[in-house]
Design brief:
The protein is α+β, with helices and mostly antiparallel strands.
Length: about 425
Amino acid sequence: MLPELAARLDAALCEEQANHELAAIERQVSEVLGNMERAGIAVDENYLENLRSRFADRVAAAETAAYAAIGRDINLASPKQLSDLLFEELGLPKTRKIRHGYTTNADALAELLVKIAPREDDAAVTGQEFLGALREHRDAIKLLQSVEGLQRNVQPDSRIRTTFQQAVTATGRLSSTEPNLQNIHARTEEGLQIREAFVAGEGYVELMTADYSQIEMRLMASLSGDEGLIAAFREGADLHSYVAARVFGIEESEVTGAQRSKIKAMSYGLAYGLSAYGLSRQLKIDVGEAQGLMDDYFSRFGGVRDYLNSLVERARRDGYTETRYGRRRYLPDLAATNRQVREAAERAALNAPIQGSAADIIKFAMLEVDRRLKEEELASRMLLQVHDELIFEVAPGEKDRLETLVREAMAKADRGALDVPLVVGVGFGANWRAAAH
């Protein structure tokens, strides 16, 4: 049965040359991933245990604070008990109704805190104290569970070996499971603390990280053909200040940090199919202001507007989107009668070409790096892939050669298909956090 299925699938792929070539590339990538999975990455077990203890203390402290706020113990993991306390006993403004009361998810509680913040009555004060402790408890529990999950996966040689998945994400990006090493965020202090646990193993001197700078925005510029964005990248300008200056009609030197942050959020949001409503929630501004911001952006970067408008129309006509390299994502829900389902498919149509092209490029980079490592007979090795970042273990005496090799391989991974240069950042350190750049 499987041989027959494989033969029919191969025949179907051959009908579309680009997809046939990408399937062959995926087979090559699977070999590289196999080597990475076998190598694993070393961890400092003592540091990991100390971190687990600190996060456990945070959980206990938050739990104590939550109980003190209401004067008794309750099950902080029970949505029903939380709903009864907040909306029946304290009489706080009700959130969205669900099957067993009212929702107590993170977004709803954040909005509830904003609503009761101006109030000074006893119920509101108690609610604020309790909700603050509850949110800290939830955050600390997630951190504790993350560290405990890593500890369970440490093998006898003090290394963790994840499993990379090639066929899970719809965009073609790789994912990581058992444990997931792609969700250890570099944007939070706690995430950075967890990254400190990953170190160079025996026989190696340090870790090296290498990632792409603003690859989604570079793809947006190239795929849209917008002359303004292309010029910004070719000139090496600070992209978000460059765009902010033109959107707000001021000099780049006059752009404030807040203006730059708004434009950065919007620019990346466009690459992920973000709507004006989604942008308003992210920036905590009203929908009208968010829509005005997007309108001003599109009036100055018309190539982006025209490109995004064409994506959904083309996907609805063809039934799929394509990356720069021909990887298809089929979107039958574009014809759905349910509005929410149809709009989700439209956001996917906006998102897939950029995210999918980025996925293709990092895979091309991995293949070229692997080829060069073998060709130059380096002992250094590639350990992890996390979105647009690669992590390496550096062998003694190979630091400079490895950096040169990786920079060259990653910079050329677009295979000449982009109108703007790919820029690669590299860092070295005794652990994953220290190797950031």
